[in-house]
């Protein structure tokens, strides 16, 4: 059984085929209306990228279609592969991959480790450290990752049918899946998968080739000073990463340019100036990783930008939510849509319900998920986790978790609602809120840093999975898929992710001993940011270096002002104003990945100017192939590292004077 209710899917298949042309026409019209905005893109999603959903739908279609054709040749195929089954498959894939984000392997969870704690001079005692172990990671994810699914189930009809929320990513994925199940769409999907496979192989082989030259510290193409040695010292260089080039092709132009501007502002201007204040603003003899020195400015100014941007958008979405509810209450008609939707949107006109919407609503409401199941499931899992989590994190008391679970459904609703309006998940912002509140409540002497980080994980898991499921419900509504099947698929995908994601992270953690170390291949900057947020929450501002707090306030206010200007000016102007959240990323990490991403943007820009239709169709496949190939290469690389197989060559770059000294030393000892 693929869909959980195959009869419902089969019953809607004929109607779905009939509406395919209408859906494609609407999709094309919407694309034309949004073409100008998409040229530079919107604000970056804080959660899963829509490409994950689209690639999940594409690969689900391709592999299952290939399997059903094989069964058909054997005479064993009883039912055709439908768009409903395709939707259920991509729901499972996205749910599984979503745990990689909400699991916090590069943020709150890894921030608990000794590796990250050593980079901070405060709160690095035993009660504020917990190193990753596969057992407790899987257990923790199992008891926190399902609550968000049950929290929004009773509200699915309100979100999708009554309020007619857009959920842009879910709608786009539905259009993509609907287009696959036509003769023209199937041919295009086949070409896209071939393109993805081709660039997957190229990226994999490129990673394999680079490995041969990494036989020592700072060796290989990753340490290539492509812009000069001085620029390299300030982290300005192209590191030949296929992953970041692919990411640059996926991210909007504005995001990539914002990241580059942030790198220029920080590493090109601010940090060299602050470095010149050594001995005045901070002691000159401090280690480079001390938060009382230059590192403190890097970390906390980045945090100020992130918090300013996140809080602004949190209150913006909250204000829109309150306004929408107020309008809904004042409205006499239950079918009136929210006033904040675009007047040009097909959902803005509700005086007549189309046949398509009538058919979708009928099938969407056919498979009811009883509220008793939702409420009972939430209560049961909450009780289990309240009992279990304190055994994993003794610092996180049961009453902290109880309060979190009382508040979490409201925040999950706000996140799912806001995601339907803006396509922006604020899961990490809600998580940071938990860091400050629970951490301050617990206090430093009672393991407040670890308690805050664990509470962040609880909150992020709930609000992230809630918005993901509602996005998938929207996709299912548009493709006439069974909501009950979608929910079951999401449950299966979440369970798979709770095992697969920590297992993959554990493999990396054991294979690469320098994960989380600054300057390594995997520096994990977000983990340090999250840990320092937790330290700030329990210690206050007294530990910051001189003038750091003033600079933090300036950048916090600047993030709010920039976002306010973006919202007040016309769209044709705002699409050229940089995004503070994106600018904050290189403040700690450096600009090397920004250069990679901008090269990806340049490739896409040139491609669009040469053949825009081809670029629109195949650029996501090319980018996904580059990212996946480079990512999959790390698995055999991990195996080689575990087997202690070392690369044979070290390719390193030296200045002319240093090279002369090395030559003289070699001549002397020989």
UniProtKB/TrEMBL annotation:
Skewed-composition ranges (Acidic residues): 31-46
GO cellular component, as recorded: membrane
Protein's UniProt keywords contain Chloroplast: no
MF-aspect GO terms: oligopeptide transmembrane transporter activity
Region of interest: Disordered: 1-49
Membrane topology: Multi-pass membrane protein
Pfam families: OPT
Keywords of the record: Membrane, Transmembrane, Transmembrane helix, Transport
Subcellular location, record wording: Membrane
Top-level taxon of the source organism: Eukaryota
Transmembrane regions: 88-111, 134-155, 196-214, 250-274, 294-315, 369-393, 399-421, 433-466, 486-509, 548-565, 585-607
UniProt keyword DNA repair present: no
Family: Belongs to the YSL (TC 2.A.67.2) family.
The protein's name: Metal-nicotianamine transporter YSL12
